Amino acid sequence: MSSSYYPDEVHTRRPSSGTPISPDQRSRRVKRRTGCEQCKKRRVKCDEHKPRCSRCVSRNETCTGNFQYDKWQVERPWLAKDPQRDLFSRAGFLENELLQYWFEHCSLIMGVVPPSQNPLSYSISPYIKRSKALRHAIQYLSCAHRLDFAQAQLAQVLEERHKALVSLQLEIEHTQLLSNPDIHFQTIFLCSLILGISSSWIDAGTPDIGLQHLLGARQVLPLLLRSETNTDLTHYLLGLYIYWEAFTSYLLPAPLQSSPWLNPQLAVFYPMLDNLTHPVTGIATSLYPVLAEVGQYYRRLVDVGEADPAHENYLETRLQKWKFPGPDGEADEEEENKNAPPLAEIARAYRSAGLIMLLQAKSVLRPLDGVEEVRLRIHILEAMHAITRIPTNSPLLNSEGPLLIIVGSELGAADVEYKTLVECRIQELVRYTRLGVYTRGLELVKEVWRLREEENIEITWLELMVREGVDLTLT
User: What residue spans carry the region label Disordered (predicted)?
Assistant: First the structure.
């Protein structure tokens, strides 16, 4: 395609050296502020050649590109011979096509609400214009989703992910030099979350759970909380972060465990988040920090084998006393159940899942007694009943992943119908999200069933995961 397709690359014809420049011509000159980040960092002129500028080619560096487009740029994706093969070969309409795909499709896997209520859909546009790292991160994940996360086509996806990583590092360095960096904390935090959460989605053959991004997000969190950018995106980011912490808590060995959700500044946001329908955590945002603590305790028992009965009782009490948030911060489970039945069912199922995980943790060191077995069965039935009431024709399906693994692994030989339900729901979830991590989760659950029923080996899903060296993220 000719370079005239990109009007920002067409320069006004300069007068010859012998022709004087009139004052009117001089006043019309506008200093260009576009160019790649590497050239800006060195304060040198960027020729904006695509896909890599000449200076980055000569320095053998990753060129993060230039995203400034003219308003009248035309998008004709049907002109591409093979859009998937050339997904990143040009910097024009295909990138915009990826953004459109993100707004309408891919962003749905990052929440439980439709696009009209999802802060990562069209409303994220101003932040994409502000941050190249965020744009690269969104384009990389959008491309991966569009290609069904196929391992055979990862090269182009990983190239864009690498650009996001380079851009993120440069933006962090730049932010440290600013007198008022608050406005950048949101995009840095969101980019870290996207890159971290999706780490295990991209390459099933690696144990990458996005740990470095999680640790980085923990460092940015206090800065975000102290900033004055209290927007809908901030609320989304905090809920997504809490959710991520909850379902990576069991993946971190004891020496790496931390409790950033106990930050008093973050706790201030819980009532505010609970009084809203959060796009990720629904109406149960304040429940997820408790689940994170349960996950950490569960992992410590698997790794170290030292029980703490007092802490178990403390966690159980917090789960039992958790109530649906109501007006003015008062609990009103019946009212919330009436106003938002699906979200109430999801919250109820996760509370049951937390209690199940506590009993699973206890069973690591000793067999459960009769009373505990009865309680476990009650929680399993409560959670499975809630799962049956979660609709499968909406983004609410995204909420089921952790439940199907945690609760489903406890089903016995007689639970034929519930086992079939677990398998069907996971298959639906894979079709909806295109994420193979849930298929691997089902394989883990089936292996627990087999060991218990065929070999009479009592083992929990987390014990089996650790024993086999598998890091299964459920986010």
Answer: 1-32
Burial 65-84 (b: 16+ CB within 10 A, else e): bbbebeeeeeeeeeebeebe
Whole-angstrom Cα distance, residue 313 to residue 294?
Answer: 11
Task: Give the three-state DSSP class for 282.
Answer: strand
**C-alpha to C-alpha distance for 164 and 156, rounded to whole angstroms:** 13
In one letter, which amino acid is 326?
G
Q: Give residue 472's identity as a one-letter amino acid code.
A: L
CA distances from 253 to 354, 452, 459 (A): 19, 26, 19
Question: What pLDDT score does 83 carry?
Answer: 38
| Tens-place pLDDT, residues 231-260 | 888 889 999 999 999 999 998 887 777 776
DSSP 403-437: HHHHTGGG--TT-HHHHHHHHHHHHHHHHHH--TH
Neighbouring-strand partners of residue 278: 282
How far apart, in whole angstroms, are the C-alpha atoms of residue 143 and residue 101?
9
Give the range among 180-189, 297-306, 368-377, 407-416 with minimum mean pLDDT.
Answer: 180-189
> How do residues 10-41 score in pLDDT, each as one tens digit?
333 344 444 554 555 444 444 555 677 678 77
Contacts of 253 (CB under 8 A, 6+ apart): 299, 303
pLDDT of 70 over the 50 cut: no
3-state secondary structure at position 111: coil
Query: Looking at residue 34, what is its pLDDT?
Result: 64
Q: How many helices (H) and strands (E) does the chain have?
A: 22, 0
- Indicate yes or no: pTM above 0.85: no
Find the DSSP H helices in 67-147: 93-104, 125-130, 132-146
At residue 6, what is the residue type? Y
Peptide bond into 115 cis (omega under 30): no
What's the token pair of residue 194? 């996207």
- Say how far apart CA 323 and CA 274 lie, in whole Å: 11
3-state helix, strand, coil in the chain (%, to 5): 65, 0, 35
Angle 5-8-10 from CA coordinates, rounded to 5° = 75
b/e map 208-219, b = 16+ CB within 10 Å: bbbbebbebbbe
Task: Give CA 289 to chain center in angstroms.
Answer: 17
For 32-47, give the DSSP string. Answer: ---S-HHHHHHT----
Query: Mind listing the domains of the chain with CATH numbers?
Result: 33-68 (4.10.240.10), 89-229 (no CATH)
